[in-house]
Amino acid sequence: MSEFQTLQYEEQDKVGVLTINRPDKLNALDATVLSELKTFLSQAATKKLTGLILTGSGEKAFIAGADILAMTTMDAKAAGEFGRLGQNVSVMFEYLPYPTIAAVHGFALGGGFEMALSCDFIFASEKAVFGLPEVKLGLLPGFGATQRLARRTSPAFAKEMVFAGKNLTAAEALTRGIATQVFADKAALLQGCRDYLAVVAKNSPLAVGIAKRVIDQGAQTTLEQGLALEAIAFSQLFTSQDMKEGTAAFIAKRSAVFKGE
Asked: Which of 1, 133, 197, 227 has an alpha carbon 20 to 30 Å from 210's alpha carbon atom?
């Protein structure tokens, strides 16, 4: 990870922790951060991980949005390229073949909230603040929030947040189903992420990855089409070594040793 200026990465027990490291800028997203994220995620897609935790450095912010100063010099063409870069990064998070958790402490505003929404789960500390303030700048969310927030909650609630530039507390995000769990502080938050992934690690990584894909794809289609996707994936897993190991371990009353094959 030494080639990255704005990212820090550590890996322990097959759990990766990716930190946006611009504390002086509240971890704001500029073209450099997004380009480095794109490079990292292309590498991360081939890693054999139980899961990836995304967080921000410092105590003030997860990611406090896009870098507004950098945006003031953009014309429409440059802005379009910047928006597409942010969207590409968010899609790459979604397509990782293992669970991803946004560990949100402090501000997750604008593009920061959008990156969190691209993860499978949002775990938050009590100091987390979520918001989409773009309309206050004469803009709208450009890294996917107009689509993902509407799908995660409802179109009406997405409009309520976007139109008003409204912020949410961690408790409100939990009530709305945006955050999955809330913890007292950042240390407890990161430990909570690890604890959840430790439970996931006991299961077949192949089955978890395929289940993630089926749930995500099915959510974008009809129930009938989603059930067809599930049936195909279910039958295909019967050809896997993980399925053979899992069923044999169950019958023998022992712990399974999965290899993701």
From this structure: 1
Expressed as residue numbers, the domain containing 243 is 205-252
CA–CA gap between residue 96 and residue 213 (Å, rounded): 9
The verdict on whether 114 is a catalytic residue reads: yes
Q: Are residues 64 and 177 in the same domain?
A: yes
Give catalytic status of residue 3 as yes or no: no
Contact 96, 74 (CB under 8 A): no
**How many folded domains does the chain comprise?**
2
Mean pLDDT (whole number) for 41-47: 95
Q: Please give the structure tokens belonging to residue 218.
A: 């099915």
Q: Which of 134, 160, 245, 261 is catalytic?
A: 134
The whole-angstrom separation of Cα 60 and Cα 73 is 26
Q: Which of 36, 81, 94, 114 is catalytic?
A: 114
- Residue with tokens 């955050």, as numbered in its chain: 179
